[in-house]
Amino acid sequence: MSSPDIGYLRQNGRVSKVASTTLRDSFSVSLTVGAYGVAFGAASVANGFSVLQSCLLSLLTFSGASQFAVVGVMGAGGNPISAIATASLLGVRNGLYGVIMAPRLKVRGLKRIVAAQITIDESTGVALNQESRGADAMRHGFYLTGFGVFIFWNLFTLAGALGAQAMGDIRAWGLDAAVPAAFLGLVWPRLVTKRDRAIALAAVALALALTPILPAGLPIIATAFIAIAVGLRP
Amino acid sequence: MSALWIATIGTSVIAFLLKYSGHSIPERFLSNPKIQRINALIPIALLSALVGVQTITEKSKLIIDHRLAGMGVAIIALFLKAPFPVVVLSAALTSAAIYNWF
Predict the structure, then answer these.
(1) Cα–Cα distance for residue pair A124/A94, rounded to 1 Å
(2) Which one Pfam family would you cite for this protein (chain B) (predicted)?
(3) Same domain? B8 vs B41
(4) Which A-chain residues 121-140 have CB contacts (< 8 A) with chain B?
(5) Domain match, B35 and B83 both
(6) How confident is the model at residue A2 (pLDDT cuts 50, 70, 90)?
(7) Mind telling me how many Å the CA of A18 is from chain B's nearest CA?
């Protein structure tokens, strides 16, 4: 099914038409996902990061799960190495998205740097969703969603960080429960099969069992071994 | 440099290098199905662990408090297919109500 063209996008010196469905997909994903930035900004400040550090994480790391992880581990009293390691394990999938997108984007130099920075769940997801509409639509979906999420995510991070800073005692506002609830909201859609749910429960149990024994942060990283053990089985 | 700055900068640098390396290496290196499967499972394990640790631990001790009530409501909201903001807000409101009034 074809949809009306709504505008034009120039890429690699070539101008192509943008389908209205691609634009609509990109925009709705950008706005909804970008709005989660409020939760991140608030969580970041609640866990001791400054407004500036929170905004830099959104601008530079720009990967929701990794950002929540680094503030979560530091907030739990972990050292920076465990925080960086946890966040980086969660960031590996962006590298895999890059492998998928690179042959379709075919960009070099500065453009490749920009494309890499906006290679996240949402931009790749919308791009793959446009596959039936052709290669141009995939690129449009990738860039429109990538830039769209980037803009909204960063604006909403600032709003959330400033809001949390103005609160004072974050427990009186329930922010200490909002943070794990945000993690739960991120992981919930991934719990599709019985095996996924078993891994989730095992990870919670292992992390809690190790918490009194290991330094903060390590109990979380340790649960990656559950994923590796299950993934290696035929 | 403070620990928070090290975490902020370190995470950002590695996050970018991971993204950029994906754009720069040939597809066949990562097409191994086991790598793909582990990669899909790691977020489930780590995010679930974070849920547990952030809900019922404080400074290396297991503690049950107002946060657990908030999470209970968040789970109910998710079972009712509530959107993300409703999940987070309902958890926050429940937790805050218990913290302030008990």
Answers:
(1) 9
(2) AzlD
(3) no
(4) none
(5) yes
(6) very low
(7) 24
